[in-house]
Amino acid sequence: MVAVYWIFRQWRPAAIDRFFRKGAAALAALYSLGHGGNDAQKTMGIIVALLVAHGSFTQDTQLSLTDFRTAWIILSCHLAMAVGRRWAAGASSKPWDSRLPSFSRGGCCAETAGAATLFMATFLGIPVSTTHTIAGGIIGVGANPPLTGIKWDIAIRIVMAWSSRSPARRSSRR
What is the number of alpha carbons within 13 Å of residue 32 lying toward its C-beta? Predict the structure, then answer.
């Protein structure tokens, strides 16, 4: 965020708004791609684990689009993510068109940080929460001086909700 403020320090506000408005759709697409890649990857792992347990696959089976035996797993997981996202978006919002909302510098930085985190985690094979990545990006943007950009009571409630829902905490309460 500090770098973005420094890079655009001499730009007029209207020019900054136009610049980030044009980038809004591209950033949303990148974030969605990272979301689908990471969440679909987790689902693929569950399917492969079940097929290994069933005896259909060996433990060293590698997923590949060029292998007919495993391509269906990759394609079905990505299709399920696309259908689910489209269904959810159709129920709650209008399709993307020329009426894109203004996209602030902060929103750009938060979404870029979230997308970068998702891409890095997906590349490394680390399952992460998409919700956690975007919340972390938003808190990171708000953490720029002054720290009054963060509504700390809401941030604390979010962290508390995440920690109260963790599997380890649920099993210890039984």
Answer: 14
Of the CA atoms within 13 Å of residue 17, those in its CB half-sphere come to: 6
Tokens for 86, please give them.
Answer: 């489209």
**Stretch (H or E) spanning 70:** helix 68-92
Please name which of 116, 103, 151, 154 lies closest in space to residue 35, comparing C-alpha atoms: 116
Query: What is the predicted pLDDT for the residue at 88?
Result: 65
* pTM over cut 0.70: no
Q: Classify residue 9 by burial, with Cβ atoms within 10 Å: 0-12, 13-18, 19+.
A: exposed
In the predicted model, is pLDDT for residue 51 greater than 90? yes
The burial class, CB within 10 Å (0-12 / 13-18 / 19+), for 60 is exposed
**Tens digit of pLDDT for each residue in 87-102?**
765 554 444 444 444 4
